[in-house]
Amino acid sequence: MSILDCSIVTPQKKIFEGKISYIKAPGKVGEFGVLPGHESFITILDVGIINITEENGEEISYLLVGGYFEVTEDKIIIIADEVYTKDDIDTQEASKKAEEFKNKLSSMNFDDSDYESTRRKYEKYSNMLKLAS
User: Could you tell me which of 40, 41, 63, 39 has the C-alpha nearest to residue 50?
Assistant: First the structure.
């Protein structure tokens, strides 16, 4: 079985280091998956849930809030702005914040200066709820 070495880090700490057989991540232009033998590339990550299948078949999920994803030969390096685990999430607070940013987005236009940052905050809190469920 082919494997990939995978590292996920934030500016503050290392989140994950291990051997994996598959990873699905939220790219800026849509979700993508990587298996061993994938072509090398670098891309920008959006807000979303990353799913990892470890070498032993166990699955792990994290919420990533932006960053960079690089594949080279048999190695994946993810440098994330923020990463959350299921244990990090306060569902009541996330629900309240998701609703707050959803309401704010509904009254905005795409060309508003803070539209993208508001959208990212909404995505962050709504994905927290998905990860926690």
Answer: 63
